[in-house]
Specification:
Elements lengths: L1 H28 L7 H10 L4 H36 L11 H18 L6 H25 L3 H24 L4 H4 L1 H5 L8 H20 L1 H8 L2 H6 L4 H23 L5 H13 L4 H25 L8 H23 L1
Helix pairs in contact: 1-14, 2-3, 3-9, 3-12, 3-13, 3-14, 4-5, 4-6, 4-12, 5-6, 5-12, 9-12, 13-14, 13-15, 14-15
Protein name: Iron complex transport system permease protein
InterPro entries: ABC_BtuC-like, ABC_transptr_permease_BtuC
Keywords: Cell membrane, Membrane, Transmembrane, Transmembrane helix, Transport
Amino acid sequence: MRKKLHLRYWIAFGFLALLLMSFIVWNINSGSIEISVREIMEILFLGKGEDTALNIIWEIRLPRILAAIILGGALSVSGFLLQTFFGNPIASPFVLGISSGAKLVVSLVMIFLLGKSMVASSAVLILAAFVGSMISMGFVLLVAKKVKQMSALIISGIMIGYICSAITDFVITFADDSNIVNLHNWSMGSFSGMNWENVRMMAVVTAVTVLMVFLMSKPISAYQLGEGYAQNMGVNIKLFRVALILLSSILSACVTAFAGPISFVGIAVPHLVKSLLKTARPLLVIPACFLGGAVFCLFCDLIARTAFAPTELSISSVTAVFGAPVVIYIMIRRKRSA
């Protein structure tokens, strides 16, 4: 039995890795200018090729692809942490309004700096998004203390998200500066316009945070079995819950700062990964969630760029199309098992 489980895990991770590599090549190849696989390999590994193709791959497509991988994985892991914290499979940064709170503060900071002819650095954007995430999370936690039903908590989170989004849209709509008006595309969610500075910053923040989450696999596993069991295993519940909130907020903030709010990834991917692995063990689910989120976002970004080219769809529109059915399935299954 143990050998069968190990084989399943190897197959699952191999499958995700194969999908990831396939979508990387597919994303590099797709666009207004098609580049053959042979040219891609020569450019990536030998540094040879036409100047136009070199610039397209290294300055436009590759940063965008890496951003989708890093931010997709971060959002999926953030969703897994929130689902563990609240004990609900449809908890996620987007549903609970955390992404919308981050979007609001980032928008206000960007508008303030642009109004003074200044450009916000990556670190400033992440810090602003983190502040917004923590404010929204604070409201969600206050509601959680007042209501016992998880459905009421989810509805409250959705309302918080709507309020933050409405304020953000109002501010952007009535902005005078043309650069500020262009924030509308970011506010809808997009991986476009990424550069290597953005990629380096998000890679460092995400790598450190996900590593800390992975090191918490054992207490997370104990917490999944109940607070009483976790306490008996020596887990400091208060400190542990604070750590979950902070880590999930940092990951969510990093995503929102660079790509705007992205819907349904944090809900759908953890559920799909658990179904694929047939286990909820954090030691396996956390890295699988990161891989799954990367694959999911690469796939959705490919559709967003190419489905109606040259018009580009917002990434949230595409993730909603594929993620919403998963959420509906989760709710129906929970209703049947209740």
